[in-house]
Design brief:
heterodimer; A: alpha/beta; Peroxisomal Thiolase, Chain A, domain 1; six-stranded mixed sheet; five-stranded mixed sheet; 17 strands; B: mainly alpha; Non-ribosomal Peptide Synthetase Peptidyl Carrier Protein, Chain A
C-alpha cells in the first residue's frame, strides 16, 4: 500500500515505562554460554538495561495509566474521543479486548469506537494508518491510539537470543483532523512467506499452552526456551531488514518529494543497536538524526519503539517546534513500512515512568 | 589475513578448532551473535566496513568465504 493522508496530525504523544530496571550484567549467568562471550555482546548489541513489567502488571494497566494521565492532566477530554485503538501482541485476554476495558473503566461515551489490533513491530505505523482512516468519518473527534506490549512475559529468561533485547512499555498518542496539516506520505509492505522468523508457537487455539509446551529445552543453539515463548530468528530478520528497508526509505523520500538531507529526524523501530547502526550506514544518514539507543536504555518494546524513541530523544523539541520526520518500522509479519510527516507543536510529548 | 581471522574466531569460540570445519554455521561453531561479534572485530581491527547485505550465513562458512567478503568490502 502506498498512499497520502490529508488533513491529519498527531497532537500529542505520551511514552510510558515500567518501573523495574533489569541489568544485562546481572543476567549473564542465566545463559548457558560462557560469561566472557556473552559480555562481549554488551557493547556490540547495546545491551545495558531493559524495562520489565511487574508480574502483576499487564497491557491494559499501562493503557489505563496513560489514558488516565491524559484525562487527569486535561490533555484530552472524554467527549473529544471518537475512538480508542489498542495495538498489542500481548492482550490481557482473548476477550474482552483492552479497548473495551478502557471505555468501560473510564466511562467513555458509548458511541466511542473500540478496536484492538494484534500487530507487533509495525504497530505504530499501522495504528496511525487506522487512526487517519477513522478520522475521515469523525471530523470533530480525536483518536486515542494506545500501543503497548509486555512481551517480556513471553520470553525465556534463559534465552540469550531474545531476553536481553526485549523491553516492555506503552504509549498513548492523540491523533486529530487539521485541514492545515501537511500531507502525510505512507508505504507499507508484508511478506507472509517469511512469517515464521518471529513467532510464539503455543498459546493460540491451534496449539494451546500445556505442560508439554511449557517445557524449557535447548533447541540446539544453546538457548533454553519453550514453545510458549517468543523466538526471533535473528539472522533471518537481520537479512530482511538490510534487504527491504533501505529501498523502502528511498521510495518514501521520492514519493514525498524529500531528500535524505531535508528530513530532520529518522525515528526508526529499535530491534538492537547493531541492526539500527548497519541500517543507518546503508541509508547514509548522520547519527544525530537517527537515534539508536532505545535498546540500550529500555529494551525493544516491539510496536511501541517509535513513540518511545520520539518521546525519549526529541520530546522536548517537538513540544516547541515542527520537524519533518521519517518514521520506519520493520519486523513481525514480516512487514515493513515508512511514513513521512511533520511532527511538532505537540500539546505534549514526554516519557513518564509508571509504577507498573 | 587468514591467521588474524583464525585468532578472532578462536577468541570468540575457544572451544572449537576452526581448522576442522568447512562450514562454521552449519556445524554450529558460529551462531548469529558470534557472527555479529566477528563483524565488529573485523571492522575494528582490520578497518573495513561490512555492508549489512553481506551479513548472511553463506559469507561465514569458512576462512575462504570470510576473506572473500572482506576483500569485497575494501
Amino acid at each position: 500500500m502506498k498512499t497520502i493522508f490529508k488533513g491529519k496530525k498527531i497532537s500529542g504523544i505520551l511514552g510510558i515505562l515500567p518501573e523495574t530496571v533489569s541489568y544485562f550484567d546481572d543476567e549473564v549467568n542465566n545463559y548457558t554460554f560462557p560469561v566472557k562471550q556473552t559480555k562481549r555482546l554488551k557493547k556490540i548489541m547495546g545491551f545495558e538495561s531493559h524495562r520489565l513489567s511487574k508480574p502483576e502488571s499487564f497491557a491494559s494497566d499501562f493503557c489505563m495509566f496513560g489514558v488516565r494521565y491524559l484525562l487527569d492532566n486535561e490533555l484530552i477530554k472524554k467527549e473529544e474521543i471518537g475512538a480508542v485503538l489498542v495495538v498489542t501482541l500481548s492482550p490481557d485476554y482473548y476477550l474482552p479486548q483492552i479497548s473495551n476495558t478502557i471505555q468501560g473503566e473510564l466511562e467513555l461515551p458509548q458511541d466511542v469506537i473500540c478496536m484492538d489490533i494484534p500487530q507487533g513491530c509495525c504497530g505504530y505505523l499501522l495504528g496511525l494508518m487506522q487512526s487517519f482512516m477513522l478520522l475521515d468519518h469523525m471530523p470533530d473527534k480525536k483518536i486515542v491510539l494506545c500501543n503497548v506490549d509486555v512481551l517480556s512475559k513471553k520470553v525465556s529468561k534463559q534465552d540469550r537470543n531474545d531476553f536481553p533485547l526485549i523491553g516492555d512499555g506503552a504509549s498513548v498518542s492523540v491523533i486529530e483532523n487539521d485541514p492545515s496539516a501537511p500531507d502525510i506520505y505512507y508505504t507499507m509492505y508484508t511478506d507472509g512467506t517469511r512469517r515464521d522468523a518471529l513467532r510464539i508457537p503455543a498459546g493460540g487455539f491451534r496449539m494451546p499452552c500445556s505442560e508439554e509446551t511449557g517445557k524449557v529445552v535447548d533447541i540446539g543453539d544453546g538457548n533454553l526456551r519453550a514453545l510458549d515463548h517468543m523466538h526471533m530468528d535473528g539472522s533471518a530478520v537481520f537479512s530482511f531488514v538490510q534487504e527491504e528497508v533501505p529501498p523502502c526509505i528511498e521510495e518514501i523520500l521520492e514519493y514525498a518529494g524529500q531528500t535524505k538531507e531535508s528530513i530532520d529526524y529518522y525515528m526508526f523501530h529499535q530491534p538492537n543497536r547493531f541492526m539500527v547502526r548497519k541500517l543507518r550506514e546503508k541509508i547514509e544518514v548522520p547519527a544525530e538524526k537517527m537515534p539508536d539507543d532505545l535498546v540500550t536504555k529500555y529494551g525493544n518494546p516491539s510496536g511501541v519503539s517509535i513513540p518511545l524513541v520520539i518521546t525519549d530523544s526529541v520530546g522536548e523539541a517537538l513540544e516547541k517546534d515542527k520537524y519533518t520526520c521519517c518514521l520506519s518500522a520493520f519486523g513481525s509479519g514480516l512487514a515493513w513500512g515508512a511514513m513521512i510527516m511533520e511532527l511538532g507543536d505537540l500539546g505534549f510529548c514526554k516519557l513518564v515512568e509508571s509504577d507498573l | 589475513m587468514e591467521n588474524k581471522l583464525l585468532e578472532m574466531l578462536t577468541e570468540i569460540r575457544p572451544e572449537f578448532d576452526f581448522n576442522e570445519s568447512d562450514d562454521y554455521v552449519a556445524d554450529g561453531y558460529l551462531d548469529s551473535f558470534d557472527i555479529v561479534t566477528l563483524i565488529s572485530m573485523i571492522e575494528e581491527e582490520l578497518g573495513v566496513s561490512i555492508d549489512g547485505l553481506d551479513i548472511v550465513p553463506e559469507n561465514f562458512k569458512n576462512l575462504e568465504s570470510i576473506t572473500a567478503m572482506i576483500q569485497r568490502s575494501k
